[in-house]
Amino acid sequence: MNRARARRTGAQLHPDPARVLARLFLPGEQPHLAHSRAQEVVARVMALDDSEVDRLVGALLAAFSPRHPAYEELLVSHASVVASHVDGAAPLSRARTLLLGATFTAEYAVEGAAVCNPSAVLHPDQDGLAAGQARVAVSVRGIGEGHVSSIGFRTAIVGPGERWTWSPGGHTVSGGTTSIAPWRRAHLRAVLAAQGDVDELAHGVLRALPVRFTEAEFERAMSHVHPQLSARAGAAATSELLRRLVASTHVVEFDRGTTLAQRVIMPAAAAETNGMEDARFTRFVGADGTVEYRATYTAYDGRRIAPRLLSSPDLRVFHTHWLAGSAARNKGMALFPRLVNGRRLALCRSDGENLSLAASTDGLSWTVQQVVHAPAAAWETLQVGNCGPPIETEHGWLVLTHGVGAMRAYSIGAILLRLDDPSIVVGTLHHPVLEPEEGERDGYVPNVVYSCGGLIHDGRLWLPYGIGDARIGVAQVPVDELLAALGRG
């Protein structure tokens, strides 16, 4: 029997607690609390004498300006959030405004606890490389205070040969600028239907909406609903649900001067307050040759999980959106990198146990087609799932899988799906290509190796992978060797 085993490169990525964001902090309004203390805090800042204010601001600027670009502008913005609590008509001095803003600002270490579960695609910029090299964009799951996950990025140079070199990440990071994204009416209807929430009020709002609408157009539609529908029992709950859904989709835009490694996408919707987990990126090429980076990620609010869509034309501007349908449940959707016979396809594990094929006409509403891989081997007796989007080879779609076995140990395997009909499995690896070795058994979650996506370069499958939900390693295996073990080499 041919046995393909991935070789570890020794290139590891560890969490860097110095990678920090400065973000708005409103005391008393943390998720587990309900009473804002802003008014009392503002009063204390206003009571300080001018000399004390000047001294404090001087120290703040010296300590934090090197850590945060446009630090003063950020503080002014945060001060404006609580300006309604400032008594008096006289404008605040620049120093007092900065101190007020700093009082309502806190640093957040995006990787303070861990960095794990990477996904790799070709970087949009391939300039300045030597022969045999490629630049790789790697999304990572950063875990910070409160075990809240965000989506960050790193870059690496792969090749020539068996080399993988992480590029410096730096300590300066940016959360970008977030705004509410537009919706399609049909998509909102599908999301509501999936939750069983299309009552008469929702139906009336949907009828009043244009085919594609903004938040302002949604509010106009709400105001035009028949008054008797708005007065019915349950109307307040429906209105709240509709507003929460519309406000949950975002556009996150980063300054052109930031590098990919500086960009961090933080949770911005109620459905993801406890994290955005395990982005699975693919470089999607449309029928017309247009390239778009697409990923699914898991939104987690502390109780519920759900797959969400993240898309970007350039890895600088990102759109997040809801996914609907029978396949958009549980964790671990992974998108195919192109249309297959004119259809959008994905892999999912909507039943929590089996790897299934899903299809969609619009990329937003997904239907389960059939199971393509179920737990069978000893190392996957608990459940199986994917370890990233399918990778196209001349012999079929290479799908990295994860299996969970005894002692809840995670290992990585592979299957091969037919190119023109991915519902058909044409090869199965009967042993793990990667499993935790002795130095990888310890971590936040012991006995786990896990990836959200690899890529092929120069005849090798490159696989960055999470170790124990704590750090990242990189392995590689010759593609011919892997295909041979799958019976297709």
The helix content, as a percent range, equals 10-25%
What radius of gyration results from the CA coordinates?
A: 24 Å
Instruction: Report the total helices.
Output: 10
CATH architecture of the largest domain: 5 Propeller
Derived structural class: alpha+beta
Beta fraction of the residues? 25-35%
Q: How many β-strand stretches?
A: 28
Q: Describe the strand arrangement of the main beta sheet, using strand numbers.
A: 8-11-15-14-13-12
Termini separation comes to 13 Å
CATH fold description of the largest domain: Tachylectin-2, Chain A
Query: Would you tell me the overall average pLDDT?
Result: 93
If you had to describe this structure to a student in words, what would you say it looks like?
The chain is of the alpha+beta class and 489 residues long. The protein has three domains: 7-16 and 110-177 and 249-485, Tachylectin-2, Chain A (5 Propeller), CATH 2.115.10.20; 20-109, no CATH class; 182-247. The protein has helices spanning 38-47, 50-64, 71-81, 94-103, 185-195, 200-208, 215-223, 227-231, 235-247, 479-485, and strands at 7-8, 20-24, 105-109, 114-122, 134-143, 149-158, 164-166, 177-180, 183-184, 212-213, 250-253, 275-285, 291-300, 305-312, 317-322, 334-335, 344-348, 355-360, 367-373, 383-386, 391-393, 396-404, 410-417, 425-428, 449-450, 455-457, 460-467, 471-478. Strand 21 (391-393) and strand 22 form a beta hairpin. Helix 1 (38-47) runs antiparallel to helix 4 (94-103), helix 2 crosses helix 4 and helix 3 (71-81) crosses helix 4 (94-103).
